[in-house]
Amino acid sequence: MDWTFAAAGLVTGFLVGLTGTGGGALMTPILTLLLGVPPLAAVSTDLVTSVVMKPFAVLVHLRQHTIRWRIALWLCVGSVPAAFVGAMVDGLLRSARVDGILRILLGAALLLAVASTVVRMYLDLRKRPENPGVEPEAAVAPGRLVLIGVVVGFIVGVTSVGSGSLVMVTLLLMYPRLSAGRLVGTDLAQALPLVASAALGHLFFGEVHFGLVAGLLVGSIPGAVIGALLSSRAPSRVIRVTLAVVLLASGLSLLGLAALTTLIVVAVAALIAATAWFLLARTTHSAAANEKTTVPSKGRELL
Question: Where is this protein found (predicted)?
């Protein structure tokens, strides 16, 4: 047993359970850049590991009722067959150039998602808090969801990246008023059959190292359960901040930034985000407190 792989699985599993993203976008670069696994073997091994790990996180969200099944179902209608086709294309006609282009585009998309997530958090802090017990019903758009599923499924089949990150970005844009817990639960639910389809393709056409799968699962299964428990109970703002950090790390790694440089940039960005969030939340809280104290005094003056 190589405990390095177990540790990598623990970190990745925790992030997947907590944010719904970070599986392929983090695990594949870790396997290839840090642990020396060949690219095709890394993609295949990552997908098979995810198939076994993600049901544990989905089960947690299922018990917490934080899955929007209609959204997940329509995504799967497009993504499942497209993922198998992508895996077949990847195994038979693998092209380092095409794979590199896809990763650059995906990395740029993730960095754009970081910007949109930060803007969304800022707007949430600026507006008055709504009743936390009331959540609007999400309108389902089957055509758009199926099309998104096809695109994401093919990319996942080719690169193993995107089953969580790309769909989470889409869900954030299409359903901004859904709580973070429901976004994560829905994302994980749709990702399970998608990843299973891609993994099946890689079992036939890829290069799965089952010894590595076993080592990764030792850490990833408990990590995914712990992360899912936290995501179904933690405040939405905490999850969104973590999601932004994970997406930033994933995007930078996909764009080819060195591991140490990525770590430094993410650490600095997380520190800046935490400081800005604290100052803005403090200002907003002070403004709300002042409003509560001034309104009664005006009422007494009128009397």
Answer: Cell membrane; Membrane
